[in-house]
Amino acid sequence: MTPAEIHSQLAAQFGAAVIEAKLDALDPSIEIAADSILEVARYLKSDPNLRLDALNDLSAVDYCEPDAAKQKKFGHEPHLEVVYHLYSYTHKHWIVIKVKLPRWKNDQTGEIPDLASVSSVWAIADWHEREAYDMMGIRFTNHPNLRRILTSEDWVGYPLRKDYEFPAEYHGIRNH
């Protein structure tokens, strides 16, 4: 299937949960509503026409410009995106699925946003979601083992967020 055909099938099945498609991009993508990601993921993997059985990558992107002087040129409302690169070994087609999240839950700085885990659909998501949690501060609900994977459990903050301030010291060790 082409990306346009995948988009058409998802739009027919999920309606308003399919928010936007960028099908002419180098990596064609479809944006899905955050509250529908688990249901859509199950469908993407199990539907006989799609069979997107491989999650090649799950990553997160911080669309934020911390420099106030550059914010006008930025062109985006600050948000996080979770990006799923999917492939079908059966049909040899692929698509990128994106989910937009607020940077902070309920606009409360420090309260990280929630998104349903897809680790029950693609087992490899377990590790990818842990990395996105640890580095970007996205809580994946119903994840079987959501804990930090690259930093220590007592680390403060999310190092890949653009407004992250690296601590000058950690457990008595200078970081500069």
Can you summarize this structure?
This protein is of the alpha/beta class and 176 residues long.
By oligomeric state, this entry counts as: single chain
| DSSP summary: helix tally | 4
Rg over CA atoms: 17 Å
The main sheet orders its strands as 1-2-5-4-3
Give the amount of beta strand, in percent.
25-35%
**pLDDT averaged over residues:** 93
CATH superfamily annotation: NADH:ubiquinone oxidoreductase Nqo5 subunit
Low-confidence stretches: none
CATH architecture: 2-Layer Sandwich
Biggest sheet, in brief?
5 strands, mixed
Which series of helices and strands comes N to C? HEEHEHEEEHEEE
Count up the domains.
Answer: 1
Helix proportion of residues, in percent? Answer: 10-25%
CATH class, please?
A: Alpha Beta
Describe the structure.
- 22% of the residues lie in helices and 26% in strands.
- By secondary structure, it is α/β, with parallel strands linked by helices.
- The chain has one domain: Beta Polymerase, domain 2, CATH 3.30.460.80.
- It has a five-stranded mixed β-sheet, with helices on one face. The chain has a two-stranded parallel ribbon with strand order 6-7.
- The longest helix is centred in the N-terminal third of the chain and has 12 residues, at 3-14.
- The protein is globular, with a radius of gyration of 17 Å.
- The relative contact order is 0.14.
Topology:
Elements (H helix, E strand, L loop, with lengths): L2 H12 L3 E5 L6 E4 L4 H10 L7 E10 L7 H4 L4 E9 L6 E8 L12 E3 L8 H12 L2 E3 L27 E2 L2 E2 L2
Parallel strand pairs: 2-5, 6-7
Antiparallel strand pairs: 1-2, 3-4, 4-5, 8-9
